[in-house]
Amino acid sequence: MIGPSTVDLHTHSLRSDGALQPADLVRRAAANGVRVQALSDHDTLSGIGEAIAAGTPLGVRIIPATELNTESEWGDVHILGYFLDPADAALEDRLRWLRENRGRRVELMVERLQALGYGITLERVLELAQGGALGRPHLATALFEAGHVPTYDAAFDTIIGKDSPAYVARVGLTPLEAVELVRAHGGVPSLAHPGTVVGLEELLPRLVDRGLAGIECHYDVHTAEYTAYCLDLAARYDLVATGGSDFHGRGEHGAEIGNVPVPPESVPALEARRRPANIASSALGEG
Ligand code: AMP
Ligand code: ZN
Ligand code: FE
Ligand code: FE
């Protein structure tokens, strides 16, 4: 099937919480008509090489990216960082720290789930993740296969959601730190699925002040009205309107890869927002 979009700037593989190997993800994108794909696995760039190798013969350009999930009082603030370098060792140090925190959080949640009587094991969760950056999706998959929930998605509503007793907050970056980290390493940050932010209009100018360059206007669950609202915010704050499927290949979360219409001009517009890495000034750590 040919999807409606040749551009998809938000996809996940097994290197984090998606279900497909990076090469299989790229083949699926190509089959759906995608020509520019950002591989945006959480807290890792480890799938980029494999994605580029698969994409080149298929005519799919891979944009190296990551999605940084933050912890703050602003709800779910996820920062997409585009045009990052998988060979940047200092960046990899920070990403490894974030992945280690993910691992500890999942261990704690497994302990809580066991205490609550759910028969899942850390061993099985690690097996399901196949070495990818750990997250709640791996817990949801384990809970589903063990028969504790009727569907994968239901786990997020009933057992591992923010209000559930098994939930453990993440240790990681604040939204401002995530934007700064991307800029410090020469990347271009965009605010993912802004509908999950609490206090968007208060937070947005602060993110812009730190270097935010985009906002994900085109996203599966957005109504036409919400998309128009995001496009208006993009115009007001001089942000590039980005978009993507957030395809994971697990449950109903996200769209089919290539199935969210993203204007092709968003790609050169994002590229035009690149600026030199800013490691020296960010090391001062002001604010
Ligand atoms: P984590 O970063 O470990 O807290 O997990 C966040 C990830 O869980 C997101 O990137 C999605 O892949 C997935 N997720 C979050 N909420 C839901 C939901 N309600 N239904 C399905 N998947 C979800
Ligand atoms: Zn995810
Ligand atoms: Fe996200
Ligand atoms: Fe995502």
Polypeptide structure, described:
- The chain is globular, with a radius of gyration of 18 Å.
- Strand 5, helix 8 and strand 6 form a beta-alpha-beta unit.
- Helix 1 packs parallel to helix 2, helix 4 crosses helix 5 and helix 5 packs across helix 6.
- It is built from eleven helices and seven strands.
- Helices cover 41% and strands 13% of the residues.
- It is an alpha/beta fold.
- The protein has a seven-stranded mixed sheet.
- One fe (iii) ion binds next to loops.
Structural class: alpha/beta
Distance between the termini: 48 Å
What portion of the residues fall into strands of 2 or more residues? 5-15%
Query: How big is the Rg?
Result: 18 Å
Ligand inventory reads: adenosine monophosphate, zinc ion, fe (iii) ion
Largest beta sheet: what is the strand line-up? Answer: 1-2-3-4-5-6-7
Count of individual helical segments: 11
Topology:
Blueprint: E1 7-11, H1 22-31, E2 36-39, H2 48-58, E3 61-69, E4 78-82, H3 89-115, H4 122-129, H5 136-145, H6 152-158, H7 175-184, E5 188-191, H8 200-210, E6 214-219, H9 224-236, E7 240-244, H10 266-271, H11 279-283
Parallel strand pairs: 1-2, 2-3, 5-6, 6-7
Antiparallel strand pairs: 3-4, 4-5
Helix pairs in contact: 1-2, 4-5, 5-6
Adenosine monophosphate binds near residues 17, 137 and 153.
Describe this protein with a few key phrases:
single chain, 287 residues, alpha/beta, seven-stranded mixed beta sheet, 11 helices, 7 strands, 41% helix, 13% strand, globular, binds adenosine monophosphate, binds zinc ion, binds fe (iii) ion
